[in-house]
Every structure is written in C-alpha cells, then in structure tokens.
Amino acid sequence: MNMDVSKNMNRSKTLINAKSTRPNVIYILADDMGYGDISCLNPDSRIATPHLDRLGREGLIYTDAHSSSAVCTPSRYSILTGRYNWRSELKEGVLWGYSPSILEEGRMTVASLFKQAGYATACYGKWHLGLDWHRTGPAAEDVDFSKPIRRGPLDAGFDEFYGISASLDMPPYVYIENDSVAQLPDRLTRNDDRKGFWREGPTAPDFRHEEVLPRLTRKVLERIEQGSSAADGSPFFIYFPLPAPHTPIVPTPEFVGRSGTNLYGDFVLMVDDVVGAILRKLEECGIADNTVVLYTSDNGCSPSADYEELARCCHNPSYVFRGHKADIYEGGHRVPLLVRWPARIAAGTVSDEPVCLVDFMATAAGLTGQTLPDDAGEDSVSHLLLWLGTGGTEPLREAIVHHSIDGSFSIRKGEWKLELCPGSGGWSDPVPRQEPPGSPSFQLYRLSGDLGERQNVIDRFPDIVQELTALLTRYIKEGRSTPGVPQPNTGMPRWSQLHWME
C-alpha cells in the first residue's frame, strides 16, 4: 500500500475516534436526477430546489462527482460494495423486478460494514440489485409471492427493509417488508402514458404508484424518530434509494404545475420536498448536528423527462454536459453529490475533486474506524479527510472508470477522458452501431477546455491514449484500482466489451 494513503487512513481513524461520537448516516439516492436539476449546481436551472440548496449551503458541494455507471443497477452495486459494477456478473444493462441477486454471497457491503461497527441499518426504497424469489416455473414471472425472499437486503447487512424490488415501472408492484411481500398481488395493472408509463404486472391492493414515494418517506421519518431515542444510544445508517424522479413520473396533486416547467420538473420538486422533510425531522429529534446526510443520483437524467419540452422552458437537466442517462458522456454519469455533517463539515465547502460514488465504502470505513480487507471495496477511496478539511494537495483518486448501458468503458485521469467506443454507448446520438461512417473507434476529450465533449482529439495525443489504455487494462486485470492484493473479477474473465484489450 502507498505509505501516504496508509498514513491518511490511520490519521482519519484517529480523528474520528478521538474527537467525535459516531454519527448517524443517511444516504439519499435519487433515481435518474440530472446534475442540472439542482439550482445550487446549475445557475440557469428553471427548477428551484430550496431544500437541496440548503443541504449544499450547510455542507459540502462536489462539482465533479460521478456514478460508476450511467444506469441504475450497476451504480447501486458500486455504492453498496465499493467495487466497480463491471466486476460483477452484470457486464451491461440493468436487472428487472424478477431478476436474481447479483450481490455475491459473503461480499462485504456498506450495510454490513456499518452493522459490524454497531450501527442499526435500514433500507427503504428501490432495491434493484436482484432478489431470489421462490420460483414456480421457468418464466420470470412464475413466482410464489407468499414465500420468503432470499438474498435480498437482509442478507446484504440491513436489519430491516421496506420497499420495492426494482424501478417503479417494473413489475411486480408489491411492497416488500424485510424478506416477505406485505400484501399479495390481486390484479394486473399497466399504464401506457409516456411519462406515467409502467409495464403490465401483478399489483398488490395497497399499491398505488403515485403513493410510493410518500409512503417510503413516512417510513424513513419514523425510523429517524425511532433511532433518535434508541435506548442503547446506538447510531443508525439509513439507505434511502428513492423511486423518483424515474418513470412513472407521478408527482402528487399538490406538486403538479408548481415547477413552472413540466411534469418531470414537478416530480423533482417533490423529491426536494422529501429532503426538506428529512432535514426538519432531524432537527425536531435534536440529532441534526451529528448526522451525515448525503444526497446524490444513480446516473444522469433520463430522456423520459422530455428534454425538448424542458428546453422550451430554458431548462437542461444535463446542465452543460453532453448526453444523458445510459451514455458514456458526462451527462450519463456526472451526478449531484451533496454532504452535510454540521458537527464536522464546514458549511459552504465546495470541492472540484473528481470523485466516484464507489468511494462511499472506504469513506464509511474511515467514519467508523475500520480497515477494509483486501476483498472488499477494491475500487473505493475515502473522502473522510476531505470532509474534515485535513486533506493534502494530492488528488484523492488516480483515475475514475465510467461505464455505459451497453458496457462500453471510459477512463478519466485529470483533464483527460478516454472513451473506448465510437459513440455514446447509450441512448443519445450517435447510438451504438449507428455511428457515422468513418468515425474513429475511440474518443479522447480534454475536459479542461472541452467540458461538452465535442472535440475528439484521439489522433493528436497517442501517448495519452496509450497511458490511459494501459492503466485501465491494469485495473481490470488486477481486480482492483486501489493498493492491495489483486482480486478476481466475478463471472467470465474476458467479455465482448474488452475487445480493445486484444
């Protein structure tokens, strides 16, 4: 291990152990919210987000934070494991509501790490990492909903869970409480409206799509109140993966029309209101000062938000970045990241450090005074010294690896970003296999002068291309991007998206 890294880890543990009681931690993960949807990040935003702005104003705003992937499931895997998503068995795409779990049995997660440190752990919201349902036949939907569910949140280190299996537009539409379906489905529902779309599937009698976010929020508020009065004084970790503003875009009536943009903007306002409710509850319970609240998104905004309609309102969810959800471009994976911890993080802090959501695992280890074993958090780097204002001048990360929906790779080091595909690797133009004839196979952008990724300089800097390709190759082959013993990747040792390694 690099000695500076080792010393910093030890110093962060000393700082936490010596100067503070262990903080509560609430991790709020929005679903498909763009960087440009938060008014403290986008000065031209047409959507006012006062509660998120307050979170940033009273804590730390990251301006260069990234999800590990441009889509849902992979990003969630990385957040909870501290491991790049493409090291799992899922090499492209996302899971569905009936998909089996992709969390490897026995793998340490952020939840099990907190639990090991004596935290009460809870998850409320959209899981989307797969569940082992009790199957009755070969079809995906052949499930006995009355039987317990295996390899879900309880097996990943959470003491309790209440939520849904996947995205709000993916069946089954049932609430899961711990390892059981709360109410058995009794009908089929579907909605073909473009913004309110959800696929046909079995639906429980207590399930209304527009009521899911309010119900989950109430659960979180109740858990905060319960945690604030815990008899043993133990801290809590709450992971709150929201089902919004992902489709179906279903703001409740009091938010419809309030944003002055469109229905998506109204849903963003509803998400902002959820954050406000959590901040108020922490204050009411007298635990705001020593509670870390993190807010981020799993990827960029989806085109389902209707970019054209929003543009007519002069609003761009991707801000100045190219692309959107699913893409290898910045709009696919550059995400908001706001952190408030009044007891330790100085209000009004802004960081331009390039960071990744995969870093939460190592940060949580530092926060709880633990050291990660070699087979956990292989790609995670602690932000704790940055939070405490005691970090050095060296970059936190050597590089960041990005991943698109079709499994295309990109690596960013400093101002340089190499994209190992000829187009977006996702849903924006040029889409995979429809690139203009003669397009270069790869793309290289100098973000310091081309944040919009419009000037491909792949032919001008062969040394940079060689350096970044070699670095990414090493990260893949060693099974980690941090110091430590090399680890195996899960699944096949080579897969089609690694064609450039040949």
Automatic annotation (TrEMBL):
Residues 23-369 form the Sulfatase N-terminal domain. Keywords: Calcium, Hydrolase, Metal-binding. It comes from the Bacteria. It holds the Pfam family Sulfatase. The keyword Metal-binding applies. Belongs to the sulfatase family. This is Sulfatase. It comes from Paenibacillus dendritiformis C454.
